[in-house]
Write a structure and sequence with these properties.
By secondary structure, the protein is α/β, with parallel strands linked by helices. The protein is about 30% helix and about 15% strand. The N terminus is likely disordered. Bound molecules: S-adenosylmethionine. S-adenosylmethionine binds next to helix 5. This is tRNA (guanine-N(7)-)-methyltransferase.
């Protein structure tokens, strides 16, 4: 097993914050990873991820070195021009935490008329998605390797997204870690403000307690309306992931939630 890491994975874990792997953790099929709490100095919000010394294959490392400049956009503090980024005007869907990118790639292949902006912090995952893009004729994906909270806040203009995908986000099962969960009222309000009217937020999880939290938080957001009566059926475009399959085998349920942006104006930021 190759232990090569990228410099951004080099944060040392505080020993008291070790986090067991979740069934949905990206990349946990090919290596043992320890998730730890770390908030880089200067950050003003609680991170929903931790830097980890993750296994990265030589192929993923090579893809990062060779393909990142071609398919990724560096984080910036100004709004991104989506049409320029993708080289065309098309509905743009943001995916947060794409893990190894298999779902991202499959959906982008199924929906060539849409743009997909994938945000992920995990080096091996970014390398894996770059490899998938390189080995296929899928051209409607761009990647930002950065904290999605900051990307949405700083780079996405209000009222511009056609959709948001959040699939199997880290469940942070311990109660004292729930504050790290991505689906929280302030972030959902921010995401809702970035959706165009009619745009959607699609979440999926295999953690019942997180599904309940998602349903509560999304239902309470005034800019969103549920498209289903409670949980939604899995739409045809979302393939069943490896982790989902394993979760189902372990007896976990899977809950999809699809909410739509109403035409109501977002409050001024
Ligand atoms: C449990 S994995 C799920 C991966 C994938 N969506 C799937 O279904 O297999 C969650 C992923 O979200 C990423 N992540 C968590 N918080 C993030 C954030 N704030 N910005 C970007 N990525 C994040 C993690 O690095 C991890 O790869």
């Amino acid at each position: 097993m190759n232990n090569q890491t990228h410099p951004t994975d080099e944060h040392s874990p505080p020993p008291d914050e070790k986090q067991p792997l979740s069934t949905g953790a990206a990349g946990d099929d090919d290596t043992t990873q320890i998730r730890t709490s770390s908030a880089p100095s200067g950050s003003s919000h609680i991170r929903s991820f931790v830097h980890r010394r993750a296994h990265i294959t030589p192929g993923q490392k090579e893809a990062l070195d060779r393909l990142l400049p071609q398919w990724s956009i560096p984080y910036q503090t100004s709004v991104l021009d989506l049409a320029q980024t993708f080289g065309r005007q098309a509905p743009t869907v943001l995916e947060i935490g794409f893990g190894m990118g298999e779902t991202t790639h499959a959906i982008a292949a199924r929906r060539p008329e849409d743009n997909f902006l994938g945000v992920e912090v995990f080096n091996a995952g970014v390398g894996a998605l770059l490899k998938r893009i390189d080995g296929s004729d899928v051209r409607n994906i761009r990647i930002i390797q950065h904290d999605a909270v900051e990307v949405v806040r700083d780079m996405i203009a209000p009222g511009t997204l056609a959709g948001v995908h959040i699939y199997f986000p880290d469940p942070w099962p311990k109660k004292r870690h729930h504050k790290r969960r991505l689906v929280q009222p302030p972030f959902i309000a921010l995401l809702a403000s970035r959706l165009a009217p009619g745009g959607y937020i699609h979440c999926a999880t295999d953690w019942e307690n997180y599904a309940e939290q998602m349903l509560d938080v999304l239902s309470a957001e005034p800019l969103l309306a549920n498209t289903a009566n409670g949980y939604a059926p899995r739409p045809d475009f979302r393939p069943q992931t490896k982790f989902e399959t394993r979760g189902l085998r372990l007896g976990h349920g899977v809950w999809d939630l699809i909410f739509q942006r109403t035409s109501q104006a977002a409050p001024a930021a």
